[in-house]
Amino acid sequence: MIAAFLLPFPLRGYRAPYLWVYYRLLSSFGERMLFIASEDYVRDPQHWQAQNRWELLPGNAERLQYRVPMREHMDAHAYGFLDDAVFETLLAQSGGNPLAAFRRLLSERVPCLDAAFAEILARPSAKGIEAILTWCNCPSLKAAAAERGIPVVHLEMGPLRLPDYRRPTAYFDFSGVNGGTESAVRSARAALGRVDVTIDELRAFFGPATPEPGIAPVLRASTGVVLQVEDDSNLIAFGRGYDNQSIIVLSHLRDATGGVLIRPHPGSLFALKENWYQIDDSPNSTAFIRRCERILTINSSVGLEAMLLDVPVTVLGDASFRFILEVTDAAERIARLAHYLFAYLIPMQSVFDLDYLRFRLSNPTEADIMVRHLDTYLDGDAWRVGRTDRAEALIRCAMGSVPL
Fold first, then answer.
1. Per-residue pLDDT, 77
2. Which of 28, 47, 307, 386 would you call most buried, defined as having the most Cβ atoms within 10 angstroms of its Cβ?
3. Last residue of a domain, one of 273, 294, 319
């Protein structure tokens, strides 16, 4: 049985924050699951529709490939609910500050959470759990799972997404998401030799090979600054002390000539005012990057996109791709980037693929993981010319099988 932890508390101001993930799991796995969540998730969908939740608005279910569940579908699964008393305790112990409570949940063990998870995993309904899926870091959950030998799989959509990338990706990590990831350790363990590809080829494999119409690479700024959602876990727990305000100030200190272009995040609650900087109005992140000589970010995935466009980037916070930037040798950087793209990131459609999950739980080799990913990206194994266990050869073989 697979379990899933869905953030149970309204730490960002709204309940059931991963409602669409719950609906997608119900629609995709086809097996009885254990959901560790709040009772909000099992409310009748009409309740959320009355609140105008985006998950129930027309088109979103089709776009994210889930069906709005019937009551009998929800009742077919097991649940371990974390009630409001746990939330109130966490909030009180965090000075009443919901974002401070969120930071604690993401980055440290919290006694009330330790106790709640231990109690849920001790129930008969939790017997035989193969893995626990989570969309956020939670040290208390990891500790409770480790006590019972249960692996925790951290998932998230991105960083390369439709429609800008024809082969969209997602994160799959046994250690963490956003912060505390296993990307650098896995890359070092894989120890790829020279990978005979270029950055342009890597980008072309995942995204358009040429600039999209209407976004010619006109240089207008010396520094591009990427802002992020203020209450996202990337900033709350993994920004190494940086936030949107501090990165704006830092960009001014580094480039006082006024050549700064700032890209607001579309999910921000705040509107940026014109000042000594320019405000970006590009149609997408690719167009924004092409307007800049270099990119400054805390830990936005735009940093990875900049690498794929061969634009210098500085990452200030924790990010799963930061280790790629920490090497100066060009060949080693290409090898790290290739491993990150083809072995660490997974095809987006594999996130909700139960067969893929069990494949990863079987402890496959890095080469086996890469083959699985390439088979998915290229829709079958016709790209392989003979079987090889060398990751470098697999990448070159895949590159040669598709028009770039």
1. 98
2. 307
3. 319
